[in-house]
Recover the amino acids of this structure.
């Protein structure tokens, strides 16, 4: 990977994160998560715990959070499994960051449908805004990652920023969203054009009678042929 | 019992067998990489594809498919051939073409199977992926670009070794096998992943670039690093043993061997005694055999003579020493060098009666003063297997990591007199309870453990649950030959013999023998040689044929792989020659003659296999108290051979004493 992320060396992360423990709120949440699984199956909590831990790291560093090795080990101890087993999970899923990210983690989809619909423009917008793939901007605000399909192909191109999807992007809309985030605003997630979720642009093309109120189509069955 | 057809051959397989096993029963060879009999099924290499009817119209992985009644399997159809060729082609896409510089060459599953099942040409001309090397410790060398992700090493570490430190990180094309944070794997069984690895990704670090498998002479031998009696094969070239590999013996070591067994062999060419020495004016001076013999004869010991056997001896050597001492008119022979003096009036009371394989059947196990992981690693793996079947394990002794969950009862041996309720109830309720007494408890806890076994009904019809773990390969053989005084080595010290033969005995407290003339007959310049007045160079286990009795009483024989260096001779020939000089001529001139005499005296040694000791435990004073100390402080440096081995010294420094070698290695 040419854009390999920079992982701080182990001594540094151990010094900073060696004493990681749940904060009060997350301790409560962790208990609730653990209670979902039967005794002896604590390993099932690997993924929710890693997510919770990443979020807590995010809170503590005012970023999107990442998983330093001592935090992964903390999770492993919490659920009583070997470090390597949790480490495997953390490295498997791309949603877990193995290196620090910025306040906003911009994940631009570059898979075929998005690429055909203009993800190159989105990436160009990011680039011109100062974001580089795999890097965090010097002000610590943005980290850009090009990712594979995030399952929003109907609204291509799209980017996931933190927990929200921003869809139907183009160059200008991308810049606008990034600017808004930089100003500390919260831009509206979802489609950036006039459409409801992934419904067709300009309103529905089928079942139009259903838009305003419930409509019983059954009487019309067969007559269309 | 499902009945199915494999290539038209009807076979009946046990319930729960896989299609792959059914094919093997039918005599069909199924290529495989990830499947291994002793590990869980992964089903990720896809090499074992076969055609199965009824079923989907595509090849199926036979290793993960249960055999069912009425199945028709084809292993010879065009579909199967195409599937194997396809899988092989994919596996080779990212596999480097570095066989000429790969240590696995000549014994590589991937090589063999690509010849047998591959297409012969490659259609791939993109770039291959490359993976960085991972540090796995002093034993395992990695070339991870060669890895085909079969995950055998991951499963071995988790399931057999019980050390979850190897895993697969990242995913898809980026998947990499690694030890956790690329640290040394802290398992005493780590060398086994080298044998398990079907390609050259994990190879033996000490053996790197030493030899090709086809130029090695293979000798069947028995390991002497512990009392388990691991069946090994010594691979030698010329006069040097280059490596030791385990042989399959289901009753003893299955197909594993620990790292000391495998890698202490480089100690066989270091610090060797290769000529006789005599101490003159406090200094050892090299002499020839006659001078050395003269020096011994000059002691004029008469019948004031004793022999002390070391831990690595074969029965023949011990018998020859015993015969020499007897001919000189003495009966002072002892093998328990460190001063142990347990009662040996009944050998059943000091043997591993359940048998090593029998451990797996146990449903409640009480460990008494044993650090089994380091005293007998391959018994420890059996205990792990028993736990998997649902056994509960309790232990008395200082807490230590045995790689499995143990309910520690406490450190004091007085617990044997009154077990805590949970342990007592578990042993009572168990159908096949067993107690394993380790060397740490033999001194103060042997009698109490025997009482526990008798009172607790651990010995019943068809099941003997009383077990003693020894750490010396020579121990059971020595006890059968009578190498035991009632008071242990203290009796010998008390007799104050003029002349003492130390037969490879290095762990003795030599200060107690200050007044004796000490003759060391052994192979390494270790502690025993430093204290000796005369040194006679002998042969190590790799250089002499011998009979060994393991801790369960299994008589096994090994052959000589190489010749002893320099003037060193097989131990029995030294004793035979010396006996002439001391006018106590031994009554045998050949090795066969020696064996015949030994068999005549101890008939049980004549037949290979398990000796059945009678169970007739002595009634002893059953008070037990005192805490346990485990005798093995450093697993990698327990005898003269490993202390001479650079690999074992490195293991000790890194794995026992925590010295950091990771960066220096790169």
């Amino acid at each position: 990977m040419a854009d390999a992320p920079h992982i701080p060396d182990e001594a540094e992360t151990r010094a900073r994160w060696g004493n990681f423990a749940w904060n009060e709120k997350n301790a409560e949440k962790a208990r609730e998560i653990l209670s979902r699984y039967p005794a002896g199956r604590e390993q099932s909590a690997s993924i929710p715990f890693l997510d919770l831990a990443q979020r807590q790291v995010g809170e503590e560093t005012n970023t999107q959070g990442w998983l330093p090795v001592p935090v992964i080990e903390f999770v492993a101890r919490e659920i009583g499994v070997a470090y390597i087993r949790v480490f495997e999970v953390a490295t498997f899923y791309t949603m877990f960051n193995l290196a620090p990210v910025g306040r906003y983690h911009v994940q631009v989809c570059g898979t075929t449908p998005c690429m055909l619909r203009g993800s190159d423009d989105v990436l160009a917008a990011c680039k011109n805004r100062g974001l580089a793939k795999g890097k965090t901007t010097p002000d610590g605000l943005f980290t850009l990652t090009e990712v594979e399909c995030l399952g929003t192909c109907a609204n291509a191109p799209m980017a996931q920023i933190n927990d929200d999807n921003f869809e139907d992007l183009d160059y200008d809309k991308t810049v606008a969203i990034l600017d808004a985030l930089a100003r500390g605003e919260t831009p509206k997630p979802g489609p950036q054009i006039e459409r409801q979720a992934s419904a067709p642009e300009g309103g529905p093309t089928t079942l139009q009678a259903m838009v305003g109120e419930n409509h019983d189509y059954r009487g019309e069955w067969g007559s269309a042929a | 019992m499902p009945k199915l057809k494999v290539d038209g051959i009807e076979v009946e397989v046990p319930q729960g067998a896989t299609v792959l096993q059914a094919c093997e029963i039918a005599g069909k060879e199924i290529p495989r990489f990830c499947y291994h009999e002793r590990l869980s099924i992964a089903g990720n290499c896809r090499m074992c594809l076969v055609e199965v009817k009824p079923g989907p119209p595509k090849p199926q992985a036979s290793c993960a498919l249960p055999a069912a009644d009425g199945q028709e399997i084809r292993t010879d159809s065009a579909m199967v051939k195409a599937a194997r060729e396809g899988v092989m082609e994919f596996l080779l896409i990212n596999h480097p073409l570095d066989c000429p510089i790969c240590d696995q060459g000549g014994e590589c599953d991937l090589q063999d199977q690509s010849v047998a099942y591959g297409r012969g040409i490659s259609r791939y001309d993109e770039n291959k992926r490359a993976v960085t090397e991972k540090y796995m410790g002093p034993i395992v060398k990695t070339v991870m670009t060669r890895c085909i992700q079969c995950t055998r090493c991951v499963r071995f570490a988790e399931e057999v070794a019980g050390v979850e430190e190897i895993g697969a990180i990242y995913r898809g094309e980026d998947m990499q096998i690694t030890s956790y944070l690329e640290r040394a794997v802290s398992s005493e069984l780590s060398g086994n992943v080298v044998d398990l690895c079907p390609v050259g990704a994990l190879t033996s670090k000490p053996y790197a670039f030493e030899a090709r498998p086809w130029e090695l002479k293979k000798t069947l031998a028995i390991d002497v690093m512990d009392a388990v009696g691991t069946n090994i094969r010594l691979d030698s070239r010329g006069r040097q043993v280059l490596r030791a590999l385990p042989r399959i013996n289901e009753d003893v070591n299955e197909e594993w061997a620990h790292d000391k067994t495998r890698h202490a062999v480089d100690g066989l060419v270091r610090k060797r005694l290769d000529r006789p020495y005599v101490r003159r004016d406090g200094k050892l001076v090299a002499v020839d055999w006659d001078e050395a013999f003269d020096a011994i004869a000059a002691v004029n010991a008469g019948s004031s003579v004793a022999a002390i056997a070391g831990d690595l001896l074969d029965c023949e050597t011990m018998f020859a020493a015993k015969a020499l001492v007897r001919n000189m008119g003495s009966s002072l022979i002892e093998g328990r060098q460190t001063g142990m003096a347990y009662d040996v009036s009944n050998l059943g009371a000091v043997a591993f009666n359940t048998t090593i394989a029998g451990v797996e059947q146990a449903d409640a196990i009480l460990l008494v003063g044993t650090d089994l992981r380091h005293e007998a690693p391959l018994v420890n793996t059996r205990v792990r297997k028993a736990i998997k079947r649902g056994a509960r394990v309790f232990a008395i002794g200082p807490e230590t990591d045995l790689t499995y969950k143990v309910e520690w009862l406490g450190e004091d041996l007085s617990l044997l007199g009154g077990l805590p309720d949970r342990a007592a109830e578990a042993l009572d309720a168990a159908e096949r309870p067993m107690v394993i007494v380790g060397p740490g408890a033999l001194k103060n806890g042997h009698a109490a453990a025997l009482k526990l076994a008798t009172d607790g009904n651990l010995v019943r019809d068809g099941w003997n649950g009383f077990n003693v773990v020894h750490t010396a390969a020579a121990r059971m053989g020595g006890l059968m030959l009578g190498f035991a005084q009632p008071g242990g080595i203290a009796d010998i010290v008390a007799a104050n013999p003029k002349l003492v033969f130390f037969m490879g005995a290095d762990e003795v407290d030599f200060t107690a023998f200050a007044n004796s003339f000490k003759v060391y007959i052994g192979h390494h310049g270790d502690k025993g040689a430093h204290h000796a007045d005369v040194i006679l160079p002998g042969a190590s286990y790799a250089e002499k044929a011998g009979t060994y009795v393991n801790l369960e009483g299994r008589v096994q024989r090994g052959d000589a792989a190489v010749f002893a260096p320099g003037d060193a001779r097989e131990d029995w020939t030294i004793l035979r020659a010396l006996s002439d000089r001391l006018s106590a001529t031994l009554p045998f001139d050949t090795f066969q003659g020696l064996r015949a005499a030994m068999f005549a005296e101890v008939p049980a040694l004549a037949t290979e296999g398990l000796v059945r000791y009678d169970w007739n435990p002595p009634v002893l004073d059953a008070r037990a108290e005192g805490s346990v100390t485990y005798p093995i402080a450093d697993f990698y440096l327990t005898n003269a051979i490993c202390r001479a081995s650079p690999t074992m010294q490195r293991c000790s420094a890194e794995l026992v004493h925590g010295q950091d070698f990771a960066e220096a290695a790169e």
